[in-house]
Every structure is written in C-alpha cells, then in structure tokens.
Amino acid sequence: MPHHPLLSEREETALLKDIAEALNEATDISQAMAAILPRLSQVLGLTTAWAFRFDSHRATFVELGASGLPPALAARDAAALKSSWCECQDRLVNGRLDTAVNIVRCSRLRDARGERAGLKFHASIPMRMNGEPLGILNVAASGARVFTRPALDLLRAIGYHVAVTIDRAAILSDMRQRAAQVEALSGILGDLTGIMHRRELLERAVTLLSDRLGYEAAALLEEGVVVFHVEKARDAMDAGYSYRDVSSEPPDVEPPRILEDALSGLTQAIPRRSLAIRLESRSPRAFSSSDQDLLSAYVWHLAALLDQVDWYHESVASARWSERRELAADLHDSINQRLFSAQLIASALRRQIRDPAGQVLAERLEAVIGDSQQEMKTLVHTLRAESQNLSQALRHRLIRLHQALDGDIRWDIPDLPDTLPPAQIGAVLHIVDEALQNALKHAPGSPIEVRMELEAAAVVIRIRDFGPGFNPALMAANTGHGLATMRERAVLHRIHLAIDTNVGDGTTVRLIIPRDERRSMSRVWIK
C-alpha cells in the first residue's frame, strides 16, 4: 500500500466528522461502504470496502455490503465473500478480533478466481455495540504493503461510526422484514377466508405460511403427529454467510421432526384445537421472538377461521334438521291423517261386506293401511328424533337399547337446560352408541353405567363398564373398538373424548361437551 503521511489532529477530526455525517444518511451496509470509501481513498488510498453484519442470536453472518469490489470478488453476487470459512470471521466469533488488524492470509482473496485489481491483503476492523459483536469492516488497497499502525488506529476510530450505522441498519432491516411479514400474513389470511372445508383450509394455511414467509419447512400436527407438511429444497434457502460448518451444531428440535437434519424448530398450538403448526430449519437458532409472535398471531387467526368453518357446517346441518322437522310435520298432518281416514273407511267397508271373500280382501286392505300408518309413524319419529334436547335423546336411546338387548344397563340422565346444535347431539349419540356396543361386546355380563352431569363449563357423559379392560398402549396403536370413528366424530364436533382403561380395571369413556363453543377444544386421549 502506498505510504501516506499521518493526518494532523485537526485533519483527522474533520475526516471523522465528514464520515459521520455521510454515514448518518446510510440505511444499509452497502450505502455505508459507499459513503466511507471515497473519503478513505483520498487519505489511505483505499479502493475496496466490504462489511459483514453478525447476528449473535443465530451465531452467523447474515448480511453483506460492499463498495468497489474487483471482478473476482463481485462475481455471482459476491459469492466469494459469502461462502466458506475465513480468518477475520473466525477471529470475531471466537473473541480474537479486538482491534483493527492486517489480515495477510485472506483465504477469500487467495481463492478468488478472476481479476483482483492488485488486492492481496486487507485490514479487518471489529464493530461492536455494548460489548456485543455487530460485524466486521474490511478495507483494502492494491499493492503488497500492509497498513501501518497509525492507519489501523484511524480505521478503528472509523469502525465505531460504522458500527452505529450497522446497528441502525439492522434495526431498520428488522422493521422492514416485520412489516413485510405482516403484509404477507394479511395476504395469506385473505386467501384463506372463504375456504369452508376444514382439511383444505389447514393444508392451504401450512403451504402458504412456508411459501410466502420463506420458512424452510412447515407442518400441521394433530395430537402431536405430523399429518401434513411442506419443505423447501436445500438449495432454495439462503443459509447466511456462516463462518463455520453448522453440521456440528447440536439440534434444538423436539420430535416429531419434519426435516431429518433440522437444527431448530418452533411449534405453536392452534387455540381450542388439538392441532398445532410447526416450523423447522436446517440452520441453528433460526427462529427469533419475532417469529414466535408472528406464528402466535397466525394460529389465533387460523382458529377463528376454523370456527367459521365449524359454524358454517353447523348452520347447514341445522338447516337440514329444520327441513327434516318440517317434512315430519307435513307427513304427520297430511299423509298420516289420510292413512288414518283410509283405515277407518276400510274398517267400515269390512263390516258391511257379507261375502266372505270380500271380507278377506277388506281385512287385507285394512292391514296394509295399518302397516303403512305404522311405517309413517316410524319415519316421522326418525325425522324428529334429533330435534330433542340431549337429555331426551339420550334417554330414548338407552331405553330402546335396554329393551332390545339382554344387558344390565343403568343410567342417570337428568334434564339439563343446555341446548346443543343438532349435529353435535347426533355426534354425541353416535359416540355413546359405539361405546355401549363396545362394552356389551368386550365386557359381556358386566353392568354398564351411563351418567350425565352438568359442570361449570361443560356437559360430561360417562359410560363405564366393569369388564376386563385392555392395554391402552395397544389401543392407541390400532383402530379397534371403533376408536377411529369415535375420534373422528369428536374432533369434527369439538367434543373432548377420553378413554380411561387398564387391564383388569374396566373401561370408562368420557365425553366432555363444552357449554361455551367459542372456548371449546377437540381432543382425544387415552390413559
């Protein structure tokens, strides 16, 4: 490097003031490099400057800014500065870069292919704020001479000003990123609005989260099991400008994993559901508190959309039940009454006919009309069955089962004031039917107790048998005992379903129907 005389104190003060004013206008690292390079070129003959911003949370270099790079360093979006290990980065991370120094064994300059404009060495200046590393400022000039101590001291003073700019740029960058994420989140929620199929909504939500917010892998978990996931190819992700091989990092990921080589993960439960959204990355410490806040907001919005889907299907189901009730009323008021009148006419006709053969035909006609009338009553009863409240419907179910089967079934079903959506009542009855059939099949001869209670926030139904019970581990591993169907109905209609059992202890099936639907959750568990 050409020799330059030291600046006088007045000249140095003026230079630092000029640089500080120029840096005050910079909003990113590249602008900062462009601001200092022409001023240092006049004093130190510098031709090139570049800086790395260090993210202490992720322990990696996340941003590069440069000015005056020769072709060998500028090629392919400055790829030579963004890959592999280098001495100056290693020194900063390991606490061995405390002041401005000459780097005479720069691996990046050595390995760069192409025109290097005479660059052989560079000076590295650490940038710190409150003792924390912010990054590295590197400057270089053509030639074989290294920077003198006075030149390094001047660069160190300039490094303090650049550090303030880098810190401000990092804050602005985080603010811009957060604003972009919020805007993307708003767009995702807009695209999800209007989807009225639960599975489609959830899978679309996971896919858009990864695509538009740039997460490496995203998944939907149900009861802690991955049921849907998306991931980006490794070469599609920007791994940052890491100073070391991250494969040596211990993984901070709890099972189940989406990526086999994941090093960090973030999971957030969807409120009122047995569902969760999971994010993973192949980079260590990839998720910050900002990501946590964003994902938390996202799952709350997703929970609201799921509520809309549920309410939509409940309204459709309620409309269908209303149609069924209207049809039942019409059948009862019109056709059933006509059949009754026809039966009276047939009876009168039978009494007036003297011919034996005619009487037989009249009796057959009367019997056919009577059978049709009974079938009509059964149809009307079926159409109206689900319009009862839960207590009435459950008692009716138990009475019919007790009369039809040879079993010891006992129940305590009080009249409860709560009214539930017809579809939810239907789901409860189907689950109770399945539980009773299981008890009769797997605990023959054992008494069966059915109790319903009203608790502070829920209606609780317990179906208990005193049979042999079973191993819950085996139960969780298969779909026997109708558990799969029971689980599906419970999740779909926001009912808690719990099965408490063990070998020799009998089995208790508990249904918990939250009274406040907005705070309900769908869960299934076995103990």
Return the CATH topology of the largest domain: Beta-Lactamase
Structural class: alpha+beta
Mean pLDDT: 81
Helix tally?
13
- Tell me the CATH superfamily of the largest domain: GAF domain
- Principal-axes geometry comes out as elongated
Oligomer kind: single chain
Please provide the count of β strands: 15
Give the terminus-to-terminus CA distance: 76 Å
Instruction: Report on the biggest sheet.
Output: 6 strands, mixed
Q: Rounded to an integer, what's the Rg over CA atoms?
A: 38 Å
- What is the succession of H and E elements? HHEEHHEHEEHHEEEEHHHEHEEHHEEE
- Give the domain tally: 4
Using the coordinates above, name the CATH class of the largest domain.
Alpha Beta
- The stretches of 5 or more residues where confidence is low (pLDDT under 50) are 236-247, 517-527
Architecture of the largest domain, according to CATH?
2-Layer Sandwich
Q: Strand share of the residues?
A: 15-25%
